[in-house]
Amino acid sequence: MSNTNEPKTAMMAAVGLSPDPGAAAIRGPEIHASLEREEAVLEVDCFSLWYGTARALWDVSMRIPRGKVTALIGPSGCGKSTLLRSVNRLNDLIDSVRIEGDMRLNGDSIYDRAVDVIELRKRMGMVFQKSNPFPMSIYENVVYSLRIDGVTDRRTLDEVCERSLRGAAIWDEVKDRLHSSGLSLSGGQQQRLCIARAIAAEPEVLLMDEPCSALDPIATGRVEDLIADLKGSYTVLMVTHNMQQASRTSDYTAFMYLGRLVEFGPTDDIFMRPHRKETEDYVSGRFG
Ligand SMILES: Nc1ncnc2c1ncn2[C@@H]1O[C@H](COP(=O)(O)OP(=O)(O)O)[C@@H](O)[C@H]1O
Ligand SMILES: [Mg+2]
User: How far apart are CA 14 and CA 278, in angstroms?
Assistant: First the structure.
């Protein structure tokens, strides 16, 4: 992966790419005014990403508000997961990826050469589409990050375990079997366990990529309620292709299309009073 800042047009000509095909259709993003009053945890600054010669993100700039749930919506392939993975530099693992621009977590550059990526990732929690409990007890799953940091004090571990499981709305279901395997739980419980594990590390931002897409409707409801409850205590940036989910759980919604941020504003406004025609077409189900 490389991070060059040479002029884009020269670079595109050099690798034989055609100019931005959607530029005429989509102007800069529409950022609703209320977002400017929010304090940002995460700032995305003119961020672009290529997989080889295929450009997946086009100059994305956005500020993710602290203590709020922000949903990223848009049709399949529009770059939601790419943007989310870029926040904790999971895209570093793909050789062909090249980026331009930067992101900042609480003011600290994410893409600066001096950044220790392991330390950076410790500052964020990531919850994936498919729950991934570690093959160990419920208790050890939750306190995993403390174990890695060498915490051995039983009282501290017990406290963090209970607080995190309560925070993830699963304490009552598992408190009598903390030493059973995390893999013995149902799918929806496993996903809440993964959220408990993520919040135990006190992340500055929780990243979730379609966290309910592998769950049945009842488990989805439980996890959605949990995400809505995390508002205020945690900053969540969540990808979803489910618009009802975005409208139920999030404070703010960002609509992406063809690798660009199109519109970003309070969730109710994005769904009920979007400023852009592209957003309206998408949220009213005309495409996607
Ligand atoms: N590992 C990869 N290698 C090459 N292209 C990829 C890779 N991951 C995603 N893409 C491409 O990047 C674009 C955005 O994909 P993605 O971020 O997964 O979209 P979304 O999450 O919105 O469905 C798509 O065109 C997809 O095919
Ligand atoms: Mg995706």
Answer: 32
